[in-house]
Queue: 4 jobs
Job 1
Amino acid sequence: MNSKPPQQTAAPPVEPSAEEKSAPKGIQLLRGMKDILPEDAPYWDQVTDTVRSIAAAYGFQRIETPVLEETNLFIRSVGKETDIVEKEMFSFADQSGDNVSLRPENTAGVARAYLEHGMVSLPQPVKLFYLGPFFRHNRPQAGRYRQFFQIGFEVIGEAHPIIDAQLILLAYALYRDLDLSISLQVNSVGHPDCRREYEKALVDFYRTRKNELCEDCKRRLQRNPLRLLDCKVEHCRELAADAPQIVDYLCDADRQHFMQLLEYLDSLELPYTLNPRIVRGLDYYSRTAFEIWPQEGEPGSQQELGGGGRYDYLIETLGGRPTPAAGFACGIERTVLLLKERQQAPPSPKQLDVFIAQLGDQARKKCLKLFEELRREGFSVGESLSKSGIKQQLEIANRRRARYAMILGQKELVDGTILLRDMENGIQEVVDFQKTALELRKRLERQKPNGLIPPPA
Ligand code: HAM
């Protein structure tokens, strides 16, 4: 039978109503997403600059993996029965029919890259850090978004507990350098085999209390009993306080690993707390698990800033040979929220060396070039070339904390000079236009405590 495909009739264009015409509805930000606006940028820069400097000091190299990965990567690593994989991934079939997901985290992506690029043949451990956007379709609230940024550190190829201690120290140092005090919560979740016995004990404990559990926990009891311990529902938390503790079920090797880690932490005098309820929401962890929290009682102290631990079996799960590893990640938004709560004002922008002001079209044209020449000489330069009034331009120079201003007007153009104005005392000097960089450098050097050119007597 020659059946015709249904006729696609184009719907007639819908005329906007009179109301829509007068007040068109703008396209808005998706729920749970967040714009990072210029007023927050100094805080973001403060965090990312600190991360970069700590990473360099501790010998971590940057890695960036794609935001889109095969969905199976997360199913196999994070775990099929975790909240992240069950409920929170942005997953879809792409145009080629491949099942892909926006990355909800990056330990899996980094482990994939480690294997795929043969990093196993590099000197071990391989120390990597990353900084980028992640996606989880969870219920948005302050500090919880559907796109959020993480900074993360991974050490792959070493089982020694000194690595765990160093990672915890690094997390502590990162927040100390940001002037934020944190508390560290540490636990060991043991080897998956040791955990099985513990899980049995947990199921036994909750069997008689099942009716008191929230619906999610009732489900977790069957499929992932460890997750009962970090339920946020108040009554579930109360019950968890009396539950058996995993440390009592660790095998000798795991216990020794944990004890050694604690010894290192003690020797560092870090403010850590043993917390048997830290089990983390991702399946790949073994042995050490830790979380980074704001100091208790402080604003924003209801959400953790970061977390991590060991994942000695992840690389194997993804097809590699047994390769121990550990790492952690922190949320940038939560860190920035805390910085904003604790600081009076954002870090002030860097002082400009010089601001270029101009009067008239000819001068404007010359200053367009002068800006680039001075920038290439290494000066920090400001401008507002579209403005015309000198007063207005000097106000901008002041706002941008320029140390000097250079002013090019009609007279200076004719004379081949430029005015150099000291923005602190208002004194102006005429200098040769050809020697602007030289004259500026001389003056800036004089102000340095150990300037190359001694101040005039
Ligand atoms: P995670 O605990 O799932 O661990 O996430 C780490 C941090 O990312 C959280 O502590 C939080 O600050 C931030 N974060 C997570 N979800 C959101 C959200 N929806 N909105 C805002 N911030 C969020 C991991 O992702 C592991 N990959 C950490 C790791 C690295 N373990 C070993 N290596």
Job 2
Amino acid sequence: MTEHYLDNAATTKPCTASVNAVMRCFSEHYGNPSSLHRAGLAAQQEADHARAVISAALGCETREIIFTSCATESTNMALRSTAAAYGRKRKKIITSAVEHASVKKVLASLSENEGFEIAEIKPCETGEYRAEDFLSACDDNTVMVSMMMVNNETGHVLPVMRTFSMIKKKYPHIITHCDAVQAFMKYPVKVRSLCADFISISGHKIHAPKGIGALYVRKSTKIRPLILGGKQENGLRAGTESVPLIAGFGAAVEELASTIDKRFEYVKKLNTELRKKLSELEGVRILSPESASPYILSIIVPGIRSEIMLHYLEARGIYVSSGSACSKGAGSGVPEIFGASQKEADSVLRISFSAENTSEDIDALSEGIAAGQREIIHK
Ligand code: PLP
């Protein structure tokens, strides 16, 4: 059976360059980068190269990158660190109401256990986020603003650049964190224009392996390690570096960096094609606005529970998701915040693309959904 992988917001297939880099580090450059001999040096050079590539992609200095095990670790580090280093007197944290669990849960814990007040900003009546709403929530008691760039369930693009620059102008001491996991290598994510003190990114969303992420930390920003031990990553993230995964991350970024615009245009074409096909199916509602990231399309197939349709499609070799992969089917509340009714939220499907998808995938999916509507509803 031909497979149609349309769940790239959950994870992507590692690209050949990334796999080759991983294998090279497993079989040849397997030394410990902290070792003082040649084998150690070869491993260190692999990690250095990856760090240089990722820094160049973000437009930052190499010493501003900390490799982590995943973006979840990066967000935990940014948020907990900021609370510890800057949050003794200022106790308010501003965030969007649609953040990924890796931000939401940390903020909930800071609220429950450490007395922080969390202000969650909702979108305005049109369903879009406005920078002004974040700015007007800020005050002298605010320690941090944490905001994702692209929502992982619907693809909504949040105005991070505008929000952070307005906030930094009025409140330069407020620390800014951007979860750029679904934006990195799809949109230009540049530290300077973003006005971010922290940026979290992940390898496995961009055709690198799972188990590797990074945190950008602006050089004058205070940071505390989550993991204590050796002196790796400037003493900020102890533990022997996973050089194969770091090299795999760097290789994927190196491969993708020059094709951001080209891939964006291609995926946008696929997205438009799918929107058109879905508009011909009775009752299907598209939740993602036209302004959303073309990489993610959230739809509602009324009357059919997400999991039922997901497994129906799976039997035809088509892989999509029922919202956020991390919530494992549990409702996140994000579709409702973006305008779905409670009932509709049970019937959400998330389709997410990579530049490896083709029109055949679109045809298979729209035919699959149409068949599901006939067979499941009338069973
Ligand atoms: N933030 C967003 C927006 C995500 O989509 C994800 C993963 O789905 C994460 C953070 C967490 O990334 P990781 O799987 O690398 O921990």
Job 3
Amino acid sequence: MADPILPDIDRVLIPRDRIAQRVAELAVDIAGHYQHQEAGLTLVPILSGSLIFLADLIRQLPMKMKIGLMTVSSYTGASTKGRPAVVLKDLTLDIEGQNVLVIDDILDTGNTLRLVIRELATRCPNTLKSCVLLRKPAKAPPDLNPDFVGFDIEDAFVVGYGLDYDNHYRNYPDIGILKPELYRS
Ligand code: IMP
Ligand code: MG
């Protein structure tokens, strides 16, 4: 059966084997960083974009952890323009005294990560760090420095491996650049 997603992809930016290799490297870095920490590790993935990254990453982290889901929206519907980020669903876990690692799919304007870090910092975690799979250095504000970064990428709108356009394409296994004629910016 022909894959109906492929015609919508302009070109593959990061193929699946390269993603897998880099996620494994990130897991080694993260595990090394937290291995001697006494306080528990709590991952806070930002939904929905970080779903697939999270699933692959945590299965390579040989440590006890809690996961607290948080849903934040900055791109609403069929648009690729960043809006002010809003917390749509807050996490229900208490993170006081915990080592918190925020996980997001991509750092673009930084609105999302800045909001989440500012919010979680008020809840007295022991440590508060962040990990993004992708970063667009052309747009990411220099004051926001995630502690773990998978790939720096060009300033293009990408989909796949959890990243969406209007909630589509999350299941595309590579990270690809969407054909510009298919989206409104
Ligand atoms: P920021 O708030 O502008 O940093 O954007 C972060 C959020 O916007 C990410 O969590 C993604 O959900 C979404 N986003 C930003 N850039 C892209 C992209 O190129 N493709 C798909 N989603 C994106
Ligand atoms: Mg997102």
Job 4
Amino acid sequence: MEFYQTEADKQRLERQIGRATQSVNAVKDIVAQGRFRQGYHLMPPAYWMNDPNGFIYYKGRYHLFYQHNPYSAVWANMHWGHASSEDLVHWIHHPIALAPSEPYDTCFRGGCYSGSSVVAKEKLIIMYTANLVEHGVQTQKQCLAWSDDGIHFSKYHNNPVIDCPKELDAANFRDPKIWKHGDLWYCVVASRINGDACCAIFRSTDLIQWEYKGVLVRGEGKLGSMWECPDFFPLEDKYVLQFSPMNLGVYKTVYLVGDMDYDTCRFTWKTKGEIDAGFDFYGPQTMQAPDGRRIMIGWQNAWDWMPWFSSFGAAPMENWCGCMSIPREITLGQDDSLQFKPVDEIKLLRNSAQDFGLLKCAEGVKQSLIVGDNVHFELNLDIDLHQTNADSLQIHIRHSDFEDTLIQLDFKNQVLTFDRSHSDFCMKGTMTRPLSLNSDVNLSLNLFSDTSSIELFVGDTLCMDCAVFAENKSNELFFESFGGDTILNAYGWQMPRNKKYRTTNI
Ligand code: FRU
């Protein structure tokens, strides 16, 4: 593994990063004052953010890179933004890590697309997709960059390192995820084979020379037209492949659980599930924490090609767009389904605990709660299904005379609906999913409200992330029971209102 760079290469990249940094610096103080900026979800210092990239623990810190346009709050001209944290919840912004600087990755409708990172010989190595559109033809190739400090990167002098194999689609060949198994490096790349979504797999001894090992698994026409941002990782004695499918109706994050055969480089799966059922959660990436936990973070937004998309909301008016979800810990359930919960570190952000005790939400009575400022808060509900005889419970949140977000638990028909039809002036619609209930077990709801989003964890397996650009004065929270009473315990905490993440050299 030989990495070096010439002075000219170094200067070219530094020049592009310098220009991008100036652009971000010119507005970041204004963005920090924005009315809709998030209180505690990680967002860019300014302008556009999409997928998490290169999520890793390196030299004592969690590093999170992300797709970033440092020139405007719309998608274009992809760079890699960079933040790091000791605990997954207090972040520091670092200088932009990667900028388009070479003929193979410089393109306004392209640039340095999503990818991942690994640590090898103490270096942090990134693999990203270089996306070019030349004379109307799009090509995607995989490239390397490396760093000795986790902050300043150089591109590998002999990029690209992986060209698209002939049987795959060179216009859709992106988002490499690398890992090590035994003494060898592996990498999966999303692509298409004869129009069918698939994941290609490559193997290497040195991260530079990659051998194509064929198709790890394909969708057989049933799982969308392209799997963006694939991630492949071991969980207990199983392997998980997760991806964001294009053209799969309301599903935008799917996981498959099964077995990996390293001799044949093929993955066979039995269990399929959805990672997040909200309007806004895409391209999640996972990493393994030093204590062994598998941690996932996702982009809390949607693409304009999705069936329910109506707009990016109020953020672009304030010179930013996009933020990250709360990091989640993933575990394997008994039936091989995935289980999700917010990382324990989120508790570090809690303030002013409130124990509301046992509440009876009686039929027809509006039961109001005040949790901190009712805008930035965490609320835990433990619903006693044995005592509850209501047909449904409605939770109204970020409510005022002119706005309302509604979470409806329909106990009778076992359905949960997230309704943001009246949440704000631009983002409409409802999302509905089955609600599995067992009257011997309490139903737990963990709800996070931030200035411009709501994140909901229901039991172990259902998560919903939704952007909600409600005004801060829309801060009423109340419950209403229908067809009977709902019995629950409630606990709440104030969460940070305006967390200013420190920036280094930016
Ligand atoms: C997914 C995605 C990736 C691509 C990146 C470009 O959100 O389309 O497939 O690498 O965004 O920003």
